[in-house]
Amino acid sequence: MRILAIETSCDETGVAIYQQDNHQGHVLSNHLSSQIAIHARFGGVVPEIASREHDKTLPPMLAEVMRSAALSWSDIDALAVTSGPGLMGALLVGTSFARAMAMVHQLPLMPIHHLEGHILAAGLSDKLPPMPFVALLVSGGHTLLVLVKKIGNYQLLGQTLDDAAGECFDKSARLLGLPYPGGPEIALLAKEGVCGKYRLPRPMLHRDGCDFSFSGLKTAVLHASKKINMHDHQQRCDLAAEIQSAICDVLIKKTMRACTEQGVAHVVLAGGVAANTCLRDGLAKAAAFIGIQSHVPPAHYCTDNAAMIAYAAHCRFSLGESAPAIDTWDANPRQRLIE
Question: pTM of the prediction?
């Protein structure tokens, strides 16, 4: 089965084709166009600009994906598209385009929840771990701990009560005079920094439960940034190292608590912030210490991409699900993963 998927939930346009042969699946083509350079001067994503860029980029990208996979429309068995959550205009571009392709080529179209795509992305490079497992999904807009009982059956264990971890990275980077997006910039500075030179709080680390909070850490970074010499490269590196360490400490320890409480043997790290080396390595070490196996997609499958949407659709189809009629669903910027 070959599935062509489209992802346009925010500021990255993705088109991919996933193929499953017997028990072996692989990505035939996966193209991504980032709008980071366009939005960087605004310090964040401008929804209207994002929508226009998707509209401009999708047609030639689709043609290139088909060309690079050496396929025609007669070789495609189904379509998939991100239906939410995300920016409404951006989602509408992708879903409208996918609907048109589905009608023209008479193909089933499976709407996919963006966060489900992230959670299942570990299956793109390896087999998904046995269920149930705990997934830490951490990105610019989401920080969740989810118990994955089976495909489509998810239990929320914890979530951020305010800023997501990715937002904390972005806002902290801005305080250090770094460009958007802030996560990679903080990580780059942190490589030259010494953690512990500045002491930042680890919010809610010792509070019961698995919820997160990063607004207090953001405020602490604001106060710390006013006390350092912003022209001193080493001081900025040291503060960046502490920021990264504080965020990762909270994420890792809360995740290990969730794994222990749920009695699972596997944990999956997902979302854009999962590309952070400190978080990837730290989670793997912490999990191994308590006898849990960690699973992390390659960095290029952590950020938004269409391959994960295609794979999630494959998982749905493999369970015997049928694609819903096109007129029974719509793009939903606030689509919930867990009802």
Answer: 0.95
